[in-house]
Amino acid sequence: MNNIPVTAFGAKALEAALLKLKDVSRPRIIEDIKVSRAHGDLKENAEYHAAKEEQSFIEGRIKEIELKLSRMQIIDVTKLSQNGRCVFGTTITLMNSADNSEITYQIVGEDEADISLDKISCHSPIASALMGNEEGDKVIVKAPKGDIVYKILSVKYYI
Q1: Start and end of every Transcription elongation factor GreA/GreB N-terminal domain (predicted)?
Q2: Rounded CA gap, 118 and 129, in Å?
């Protein structure tokens, strides 16, 4: 099995999600099942079936997170050699050569990726094009509407 790269922040978020599922969601759903059982005939008890379905989802999510945590490779970007190279965890400011617009992304693991927070998956086309390049380099990103040329303006090593 391959290790799953994750930032220190991402690892803490997964651990917090697991703790919430185990300490809050699981006990709540157990109580919901107990209450719905008291309502009588289980065959026609919609509350009971909904609670059992939610319990199944919660248990599946717990197993999924536990597996990810066991395979995680935490990468602390602040401890990497700060040589201006684009690597996992770095925050990169780019300039689009077509219109001189700037955008900043952090390269993170798949579970951490959230474009609304400018966090892109290390497996995304743009991150793949950036990896290994340095400040000042031009990179070509293959996009559905055609190639996009970016210039790497800065590479930052912070959380």
Answers
A1: 4-74
A2: 16
Selection from 157, 19, 4 nearest residue 76 by Cα: 157
- Rounded to an integer, the average pLDDT of 66-94 is 92
> Hey, is 54 helix, strand or coil?
helix
* DSSP class per residue in 112-148: T-BGGGTEEETTSHHHHHHTT-BTT-EEEEEETTEEE
Contacts for 24 with CB less than 8 Å, ≥ 6 apart? none
Longest dimension (CA), the chain: 70
Phi and psi torsions of 69, nearest 5°: -65, -35
Inform me whether the pLDDT recorded for 143 exceeds 60. yes
pLDDT band at 77 (very low <50, low <70, confident <90, very high): confident
pTM of the predicted structure, to 2 decimals: 0.80
Q: Which domains does the chain have, with CATH numbers?
A: 4-75 (1.10.287.180), 80-156 (3.10.50.30)
Within 10 angstroms of residue 158's Cβ, the number of other Cβ atoms is: 10
Strand 72-75 with 91-96, pairing: unpaired
- Whether the Cβ atoms of residue 74 and residue 7 lie closer than 8 Å to each other: yes
Measured CA to CA, the distance from residue 1 to residue 29 in angstroms comes to: 32
Q: Which two tokens stand for residue 33?
A: 């099942």
